[in-house]
Write a structure and sequence with these properties.
alpha/beta; 23 helices; 820 residues; 8-stranded parallel beta barrel
Length: 820
C-alpha cells in the first residue's frame, strides 16, 4: 500500500548517487543481481525522484547495443536517451503534517465555480511576481486572486508524476523544443509531480523529494482556508509506458496483461489514442485505482476528481487466452459465474476469475483470460465494476466525481454515464456546442438548444429518451438516462484542449503549426467565429465586437443552471494565437500573463461581477429544473419566444425568492438592434445591471473602485426613459441583465405611524394600479405655499441636477472617445 517502503526505480547507480530517503537501483552487470531492466517503480510510491529541476536532461551514459527487447541496456537512459532520467522511489516521510484542523468543505455541487488551471503555467510567467514560480507554493501565493475573483473550486490539470521531456524534440515549424507540459501521461499515480515543488522545481537535492508531499499538502490546506475546494484531473485511461515501443517503467514489467488491455499477440488496445489502454475493470487494476483515490482523499485531503476520458473506465477488461490452454474452459466458466445480472463483472472475491487464476500456478504464469464472446475485450458495460466500486465506496462518499464522458474510439456517454444515483457529474460538451453556435449567430435549431443549455440541459440529463444517434443511450446506457438534475452538467464554453475564449472570437480555423504535426492535431470543428478578421485585428470595430462576444459567452456561462467551469486566463482574454492543442509548449502561450491581466482590469471586473451575481441569486443555481412558474421565455414581446431556425433572440425572466432578485436576461446574436418589450412586474421596476454593448466598466452597473456611485446613478438614469416605458434596446451581438428593484416611489415612501391599521395595504394598492400606458387620474392638489426651507431645498435640487448634467456630459464624451 502507499504507506509501505517503495521498491527501487528503474535505472542505474551510474546515473545518480545514493541519497537519504531515496532507494536507487545499485545492481550492475556482473554483481549477480537481476538484470537492470527488471527493476521497476512501485506503483504505490508516494514520491518519485528523477531529475532535480524541471526540463533538465539526464546525464549522458554510454549507449548499450540492445537486442530489441530491452536486453543489453544498462539503464532506461541508456535505452531511451537523456529524456528519460532514472526514476527512483522515495520512502514515505515519518513526520506528521499539521493540517490545523482542516476538514472537507463539502460545498454543494451547484454552488461551485470551477477554475481549471495548470500549476506550472499559473505562476511561471515573470510577471507573476511570486517567490516560487511554477510550483505548488507559487499557486498558494496567488490564491487570494482566485478568492477575489469568486472561484471556490480549482480543477488542477494533472499533478501526478509525469515526464515533462517525454515529447522532447525540436519542432521543425519553429525550432522550439516540444515538452509534455500538460502532463496527461502518468508515471506515478500516488506521487505528486516532483518538479511542481519548490524543493526540486528550482533545482535541489533529490534527497529532498519526500518534501514534495508536504508542499502539496500546504497548497491544499491553503485552498481550504480560503473556501476553495481542490479537484484533481486524473488519467487512469493510459500511462506513460505507451505501446510496445515505449519504456518499461512499472505496470508493463509487473503484469502487462493485468494492467493493460492486450490482444492475443500482445498488441495494445488504444481506446485512449495514446498507445495503450489501462485494463481498468480487471480486479487487480480496479483495486489499485480505488486505493489511489482513497489515498488522495484521506492523506492529501483533495475534494474530488475529474476523470480524463472516463468512458474507458466503463469498458470490459481484456479477456483473451489461448484456446488450447487446459485452463481455458474452467477460467471461462469462472468468468461467466463472476458476472452479475447486468452482464458486468462483480467486485473482487475469492472465487470467480481471480480465484481460478490464483489457484493454479500455470494460470498465474500465463496471466491471461479466456475470450468471452458475450463480453469481449473493451465492450462498454452497463454496470462497470470499477465505476460501481468508486460510486459506492464509503471513503469516497462525499468526494466530487466528474467524468469526461467519452473516449478516443467514438464512445460518447454524455447524459448517460453510469452515475449510480447521481454520484457523477459530467463535462457537458453539448452545452459548449449549443452555446457557441447560438452566440455566434448560426442558422439552425440553436435558439431552442441554447435555451436548454440555460436551463441546465434537461434534454440531456432529465430526459429518459435518447436521441436517434445516441448509440450508447439506446443500448446499455439507457438505464442511466433521465434521472439527474442541473448539477450533473459541468458547463463550459472552453477547456484546456481547444480554443481559449479570446481565440474563439478571433479565429475561424485552428493554427497548430508550431506543434510540429503539420496542423493535423487538435479539434477540427471549433464552432468559432473571428468577427470579421482572422487573428490579430487592427480595425476597432472588429476589436469591439470581439469584446462583446467574449462577454456574451461569459454571461451565458454564469447565468446557466448547472456548474460553471472557467479556464485559467479566459477572464483577461488570454490568446494562444489560434493554437487549440498547446500540450507541448512550455512558454508564454501556456502561461498566465499577470501583466496582461492587470491591463485588462475591465474584463476581469466583468467576470468577477458575474460570479458575484450568480452567488447572490440562488435562482441561478438550482438543484432541480425550474418549471413555468419560475422561468418564462420571451421574444420581442413578452411570452412570445421565437424558436425558429432563423431566430437570433432569446430572452427569459426568472422569478426570484426571498434571497434572489427577479431577473430579465436577453441575448441578441443578430446583426440588428432589438427593442424588446419587457414583462410586467407585479411590483417594483426593472433596473439596468448588465449590458455588453457598453464599454467597461459600464457593462456592469455596480459601484466599485472602477465605477463610482455617481457614475452608476447617471448611467442608470440614461436607461430609465426606456425602462419607464416598458422597453429596453438590446444592441447587435449583445446581452443584457435587468434586475427588479423597488420603484422610486416605493423606495422613498415612509409610513405614517398614526395611520390606522385598517388603511389599505401596499399589496392592495399595487393591485389597483393601472395597466401600462394608462394614465391614472389624480385629484388636483393646491400648490402649497413655499417656505424658506422649501426654497433652499429647491436650490439644492437644482444644483444637484446641474451636477448630474455635467457628469452626464463627461461620461458621454468619454464613451464617444472610446467608440472612436
Amino acid at each position: 500500500g502507499p504507506g509501505a517502503a517503495a521498491a527501487s526505480g528503474a535505472g542505474s547507480s551510474k546515473v545518480a548517487e545514493q541519497r537519504p530517503g531515496v532507494i536507487f537501483n545499485n545492481a550492475e552487470e556482473g554483481e549477480g543481481g537481476p538484470p537492470v531492466r527488471d527493476f521497476l517503480l512501485d506503483p504505490y510510491a508516494v514520491a518519485i525522484a528523477s531529475r532535480a529541476r524541471w526540463g533538465h536532461l539526464a546525464p549522458e551514459v554510454p549507449r548499450g547495443g540492445g537486442d530489441g527487447d530491452g536486453r543489453g541496456y544498462s539503464s532506461i537512459t541508456d535505452r531511451f536517451g537523456p529524456c528519460w532520467a532514472q526514476h527512483a522511489c522515495c520512502l514515505p516521510s515519518l513526520e506528521d503534517f499539521d493540517w490545523e484542523g482542516d476538514r472537507p468543505l463539502n460545498l454543494k455541487m451547484e454552488d461551485l465555480v470551477i477554475y481549471e488551471l495548470h500549476v506550472r503555467g499559473f505562476t511561471q510567467h515573470p510577471s507573476s511576481g511570486v517567490e516560487h514560480p511554477g510550483t505548488y507554493l507559487g499557486l498558494t501565493e496567488k490564491l487570494d486572486y482566485l478568492k477575489d475573483l469568486g472561484v471556490n473550486c480549482v480543477e488542477l490539470m494533472p499533478v501526478n508524476e509525469f515526464n515533462e521531456l517525454e515529447y522532447y524534440e525540436v519542432s521543425p515549424a519553429n525550432g522550439v523544443y516540444r515538452y509534455n507540459v500538460w502532463g496527461y501521461s502518468t508515471v506515478g499515480f500516488f506521487a505528486p509531480m516532483a518538479r511542481y515543488a519548490a524543493c526540486l522545481g528550482e533545482g535541489g537535492d533529490l534527497g529532498r523529494t519526500a518534501e514534495v508531499v508536504r508542499e502539496f499538502k500546504e497548497m491544499v490546506k491553503a485552498c481550504h482556508q480560503r473556501g476553495i475546494e481542490v479537484v484533481l484531473d486524473v488519467v487512469f485511461n493510459h500511462t506513460a509506458e505507451g505501446n510496445h515501443q515505449g519504456p518499461c517503467l512499472s505496470f508493463r514489467g509487473l503484469g502487462n496483461r493485468v494492467y493493460y488491455m492486450l490482444a492475443p499477440q500482445g498488441e495494445y488496445y488504444n481506446y485512449s489514442g495514446c498507445g495503450n489502454t489501462v485494463n481498468c475493470n480487471h480486479p487487480v487494476t480496479r483495486e489499485f485505482i480505488l486505493d489511489c483515490l482513497r489515498y488522495w482523499v484521506v492523506e492529501m485531503h483533495v475534494d474530488g476528481f475529474r476523470f480524463d476520458l472516463a468512458s474507458i473506465l466503463s469498458r470490459n477488461h481484456s479477456s483473451w487466452i489461448q484456446e488450447d490452454h487446459p485452463l481455458s474452459s474452467s477460467v471461462g466458466s469462472a468468468a461467466r459465474e463472476a458476472r452479475g445480472p447486468s452482464g458486468s463483472a462483480t467486485a473482487p472475491q475469492a472465487g470467480g476469475v481471480a480465484g481460478a487464476m490464483a489457484a493454479n500456478p500455470a494460470a498465474q504464469e500465463l496471466d491471461e483470460y479466456v475470450h468471452d464472446e458475450d463480453q469481449p475485450t473493451g465492450k462498454p458495460l452497463g454496470d462497470p465494476p470499477l465505476l460501481r466500486a468508486i460510486s459506492t465506496d464509503p471513503i469516497l462518499k462525499d468526494t466530487k466525481l466528474i467524468a469526461e464522458a467519452w473516449d478516443c474510439d467514438g464512445l460518447n456517454q454524455v447524459g448517460s454515464f453510469p452515475h449510480y444515483g447521481g454520484r457523477w457529474s459530467e463535462w457537458n460538451g453539448i452545452f459548449r456546442d449549443n452555446v457557441r453556435n447560438f452566440i455566434k449567430g448560426s442558422d439552425g435549431p440553436w435558439a431552442g438548444t441554447f435555451a436548454g443549455a440555460i436551463c441546465g440541459s434537461p434534454d440531456v440529463y432529465g430526459n429518459p429518451e435518447p436521441g436517434e444517434g445516441d448509440w450508447w443511450g439506446n443500448n446499455d446506457g439507457r438505464m442511466w438516462r433521465g434521472t439527474r438534475g442541473p448539477s450533473a452538467s459541468v458547463n463550459f464554453v472552453t477547456a484546456h484542449d481547444g480554443f481559449t475564449l479570446a481565440d474563439l472570437v478571433s479565429y475561424n480555423s485552428k493554427h497548430n503549426e508550431p506543434n510540429g504535426e503539420q496542423n493535423n492535431d487538435g479539434e477540427q470543428h471549433n464552432n468559432s467565429w473571428n468577427c470579421g478578421q482572422e487573428g490579430k485585428a487592427e480595425e476597432k470595430s472588429v476589436i469591439k465586437l470581439r469584446h462583446k462576444q467574449l462577454r456574451n459567452f461569459a454571461t451565458a456561462l454564469f447565468v446557466s443552471q448547472g456548474v460553471p467551469m472557467l479556464v485559467m486566463g479566459d477572464e483577461y482574454g488570454h490568446s494562444k494565437g489560434g493554437n487549440n492543442n498547446t500540450y507541448c509548449h512550455d512558454g508564454d502561450i501556456n502561461y498566465f500573463q499577470w501583466n496582461v491581466c492587470e491591463r485588462q482590469k475591465g474584463l476581469v471586473r466583468f467576470f468577477k461581477k458575474l460570479i458575484r451575481l450568480r452567488k447572490n441569486n440562488p435562482s441561478l443555481r438550482q438543484s432541480a429544473y425550474m418549471d413555468g412558474s419560475r422561468i418564462q421565455w420571451h421574444g420581442v414581446k413578452p411570452g412570445e419566444p421565437d424558436w425558429t431556425d432563423t431566430s437570433r433572440f432569446v430572452a427569459f425572466s426568472i422569478k426570484g425568492d426571498v434571497e434572489s432578485n427577479d431577473l430579465y436576461i436577453a441575448f441578441n446574436s443578430g446583426h440588428s438592434q432589438v427593442v424588446a418589450e419587457l414583462p410586467i412586474l407585479e411590483s417594483g421596476c426593472w433596473d439596468a445591471t448588465v449590458d455588453t454593448s457598453k464599454p467597461a466598466p459600464y457593462d456592469f452597473l455596480e459601484s466599485d473602485d472602477m465605477l463610482g456611485e455617481v457614475e452608476v446613478m447617471v448611467a442608470k438614469e440614461q436607461c430609465r426613459a426606456y425602462l419607464d416605458d416598458g422597453f429596453y434596446p438590446i444592441g447587435p451581438y449583445s446581452c443584457v441583465i435587468l434586475k427588479r428593484v423597488l420603484s422610486k416611489d416605493e423606495s422613498s415612501e415612509l409610513e405614517d405611524f398614526s395611520i390606522s391599521s385598517c388603511s389599505i395595504s401596499k399589496e392592495a394598492q399595487r393591485g389597483t394600479r393601472t395597466k401600462r400606458g394608462a394614465k391614472a387620474k389624480r385629484a388636483p392638489k393646491k400648490a402649497p405655499k413655499k417656505t424658506q426651507r422649501a426654497s433652499e431645498e429647491d436650490k439644492s435640487l437644482l444644483k444637484a441636477l446641474d451636477e448630474n448634467r455635467r457628469l452626464r456630459a463627461i461620461l458621454e464624451e468619454r464613451q464617444r472617445k472610446q467608440d472612436m
